[in-house]
Amino acid sequence: MITPNYNQGAFIERTIASVLGQNYPNLEYIIMDGGSTDNSVEIIRGFEDELYYWESEKDEGMYHAINKGFGKSSGTIMCWINSDDVLWEGALHYVARLFTERKEIRWLQGFPSVIDENDNIILQRD
After folding, report:
1. Where are the alpha helices (DSSP H) in the chain?
2. What are phi and psi of 115, to 5 degrees?
3. Which element (helix H / strand E) includes 102?
4. How far apart are CA 7 and CA 27, in angstroms?
5. For residue 20, which of 41, 3, 37 has the smallest C-alpha distance?
6. Cα–Cα separations (whole angstroms), residue 125 to 58, 88, 110, 113
7. Radius of gyration of the chain (CA)
8. Residues 94-105: pLDDT tens digits?
């Protein structure tokens, strides 16, 4: 799992916690920070023992960061989550189960939910 980040210190801690809180075995969680000047790096450092890899250096934008992160991964199921998003509980186990049970599946796309600061759903796309 890759998280591209640039100056999202207000949100990234919650994103990281939502990924690590999945308790998914063999998770390679990689954070590619684009040289943030806010408190992002300090927050990431607080989790570095639980991360597979992270770096903070200027990049060419979000998609460049995602591709660099995929290059660091050895996983067979790869995905990204932006640094101001969260995973619902059990999301990684659900995705892994789909890929395991349905060998014809090669790509998944989720439908986003928009939540407020208190996790109330304000928009659910079907």
Report:
1. 12-20, 40-45, 62-72, 91-101
2. -120, 160
3. none
4. 24
5. 3
6. 34, 15, 10, 6
7. 15
8. 999 999 999 999
User: Could you give the CA distance from residue 97 to residue 6 in angstroms, rounded to a whole number?
Assistant: 32
pLDDT at 115 over 90: no
CA atoms within 13 A on the CB side of 113: 10
Residues 6+ apart with CB under 8 A from 81: 1, 2, 3, 15, 18, 19, 87
104: helix, strand or coil = coil
Structural element, H or E, at residue 56:
strand 53-56
The pTM assigned to this predicted structure is 0.92
Nearest one of 13, 1, 4, 11 to 34, comparing CA atoms: 4
**Residue where the block lists tokens 């995973």:** 87
Residue with tokens 């998003």: 85
pLDDT computed for residue 98 by the predictor: 95
Residue with structure tokens 């304000």? 122
- Residue 94, amino acid: Y
